[in-house]
Amino acid sequence: MNKVEVYFIKTLKERAGLLLILTLLLLIPNFSWRIFFIFLMITLVLLPRDMCNGKFNIMMELPLSRKDVFWSSYVFLLVFSIFPQMIGYSFESIFITPSPWSIGYGLLSTLTFSTAYFGIAVLSASFGFGNFGVPFLVLIADAFLGSIRWYGLNPYRMISPIYQENITVALIFALSLLMISYFIFERKGKIK
Predict the structure, then answer these.
(1) Out of 20, 48, 129, 178, which residue is the most buried by the measure of CB atoms under 10 Å away?
(2) What CA–CA distance (Å, rounded) separates 192 from 189?
(3) Domain residues of the chain, as ranges?
(4) For the chain, what is the total number of helices (H) and then of strands (E)?
(5) Residue (of 185, 61, 187) closest to 131 by Cα position
(6) pLDDT tens digit string along 13-40?
(7) pLDDT tens across 160-174, in order?
(8) Phi, psi at residue 150, to the nearest 5°?
(9) Can you say how many angstroms the Cα of residue 3 is from the centroid of all Cα atoms in its chain?
(10) How far apart are CA 25 and CA 33, in angstroms?
(11) Following DSSP, what letter does each residue of 12-69 receive, concatenated?
């Protein structure tokens, strides 16, 4: 059995009910709603929660390394955030015909947000700040800082995981957060 499959089976068995509810809610094609449900999935279902509630030690008894757990959790997030969005777009196309550009941009926006907040939540859990509180404060700060306009400009909006005014720069920033969180998790990772 593949290491990613082991992680998927373990997570699906432990959190099937919550995952079902969140996956159904992720069918909503509106990005504003989706980011909230993706945030809940990251903080309540995936690796950051396991790090904070002591289940990470149990995972290390499985044939998984820290690297395997980190990347399997990230792949799990991408599968359970992007596939429902694709299904949502197919339902939306019954009523309106979205352009391939808007669908691709929507998927890239979801990828960027998911990557950034997965990195933020893992960093928070790695330093012992919890899996929900600090990432939620970062989410609020991100929304607030992105909403401020200085003479019609706000450079922060370019890298903001919520606003993503420049999707390329925002994706690079999100990938940077992911890699930093991976290296810190690999070296430090707080285990209770």
Answers:
(1) 48
(2) 10
(3) 3-187
(4) 10, 0
(5) 185
(6) 999 999 999 999 998 878 888 999 999 9
(7) 999 999 999 999 999
(8) -105, 105
(9) 20
(10) 9
(11) HHHSHHHHHHHHHHTT---HHHHHHHHHHHHHHTSHHHHHHHTTHHHHTTSS--HHHH
pTM of the model as a whole = 0.92
Using the structure block, give the residue that is written with the tokens 């990938």.
Answer: 175
Instruction: Give the model confidence (pLDDT) of 75-105 as tens digits.
Output: 999 999 999 988 887 877 677 777 777 888 9
User: Given the structure tokens 């926006």, which residue do they identify?
Assistant: 109
- Cα gap 159→166, rounded to integer Å: 7
Has residue 192 got a pLDDT over 50? no
Q: Which of 73, 78, 75 is nearest to 11 (CA)?
A: 73
For residue 153, give both structure tokens.
Answer: 């400009």
Give the pLDDT band of residue 48 (cuts 50, 70, 90): very high
